[in-house]
Amino acid sequence: MIVQPLVGYYSDNCTWRFGRRRPFIASGALLVILAVSLIGFAADIGHAAGDSLGKTTKPRSVVVFAVGFWILDVANNMLQGPCRALLADLSSGNADKMRASNSLFSFFMAVGNVLGYAAGSFSGLHKVFPFSMTDACDVYCANLKSCFFISVALLLVVTTLALTFVKEREIKVPAGEKEKAAAAGGVPFFGEIFGALRDLPRPMWILLLVTALNWIAWFPFLLYDTDWMAKEVYGGVVGDRLYARGVHAGALGLLLNSVVLGFMSIGVELVARRFGGVKKLWGCVNFILAICLAMTVLVTKMAQHTRQHDAAGHVLPPTAGVKAGALLLFSALGIPLAVTFSIPFALASIFSSNAGAGQGLSLGVLNLSIVIPQMLVSFLSGPWDSLFGGGNLPAFVVGAISAAASGIFAMTLLPSPPRDVALSAAGGFH
């Protein structure tokens, strides 16, 4: 919630000769490497610090893992904000380029997802790195560690290439801005955040509203999709084999989702032209999202109606038709997800540029409309589901309603973006 606006503001006002975005991208990449190293070696570090191999609970390993996961969250935010802001900078005010660059950003996110799911499904990956298995790290831990080795190598290569060949213009911050910051006792970050929110132009407020509703719809499914597949579709109970099979089926669904996400990301610009603009496309795919989330109720009811048991009374996996229906929903959701990963960020860059705002801080403000819904869904979905007897469907239904509302507001209230705008080097909405 704080990291992206903070990094965005600092990168907007950075005057390093190396560039204003690239130092933060490099720092974020290094933090990612540190984070995955802590996560991958958590069991080994915990064992070296005193965790007993004979005990189920390993508190030191848990602490190392939690710290690594927290650093990873910070690092991801340090990377994504400046990367998207750099894309906007390089677009030089061309709205078409902003949309195209964010679509490509979404495409490469999909590529990363597909590679990650593919690597995770290969149970023999640890054999490539035989040293990954230790007394404290079993085959599953070693496979995860091996995935991290590969991801770190890829991250180092692509980051080095990007920082070497992508050039930035050196930004000169006006002397008056420097004096203002010095008089305030340093960089007035929180003052800029409040000022940015106070002075937001109307298009940005509408964009924040549509984005927030959009993510209220997305987060229940993104957080509980494999649990839904394992419990409601497969009829499993946490800890049993059927639940594990359901989780594996959900992982396959996420892989299919990522494949569709990748193809749709490439075609967002073309489809937007056919639909008559990005806001109409965003509105339409939000209705697709609403329909898919509502269809989870139908798939669940079909799974319950066709549930079969063996002679011993054990629940059998769902029928082929039910599994196909669930996987089809996962796949179809890749279409609205591609738009969600590209169009809102492109519109934020376009609207903020038109208002004379810094790209980093503007995208950081947009991130608030993503993080706040995530927090609300995380805290409230459990009690909300419990009111209706448990399960994931109540939160999915709320998501469907929110998606429909987001679609309506996108098509009726969100203004059409101008084609070309003049980019500003300054931060804040002034």
Summarize the biggest pleated sheet: none
Overall number of structural domains: 2
Under the CATH scheme, the architecture of the largest domain is Up-down Bundle
Strand content: under 5%
Distance between the termini: 22 Å
Gyration radius over CA: 23 Å
CATH fold naming of the largest domain = Growth Hormone, Chain: A
| Helix-strand string | HHHHHHHHHHHHHHHH
What's the rounded overall pLDDT mean? 84
How much helix is in the residues?
Answer: over 70%
The CATH homologous superfamily of the largest domain: MFS general substrate transporter like domains
**CATH classification, class level of the largest domain:** Mainly Alpha
Q: What is the count of β-strands?
A: 0
Membrane topology: Multi-pass membrane protein
GO molecular function, one term: sucrose:proton symporter activity
Protein name: Major facilitator superfamily (MFS) profile domain-containing protein
InterPro entries: MFS_trans_sf, Suc_symporter_pln
Description:
By secondary structure, the chain is mainly alpha-helical. The protein has two domains: 1-172, no CATH class; 195-416, Up-down Bundle (Growth Hormone, Chain: A). The protein has 16 helices and no strands. The protein has helices at 3-12, 22-40, 42-48, 59-91, 95-121, 139-165, 175-183, 189-198, 202-233, 241-275, 278-305, 320-332, 334-340, 343-354, 359-387, 393-412. Helix 3 (42-48) runs antiparallel to helix 4 (59-91), helix 4 runs antiparallel to helix 5 and helix 11 (278-305) runs antiparallel to helix 12 (320-332). The model is unreliable at 180-187 and 420-430 (pLDDT under 50).
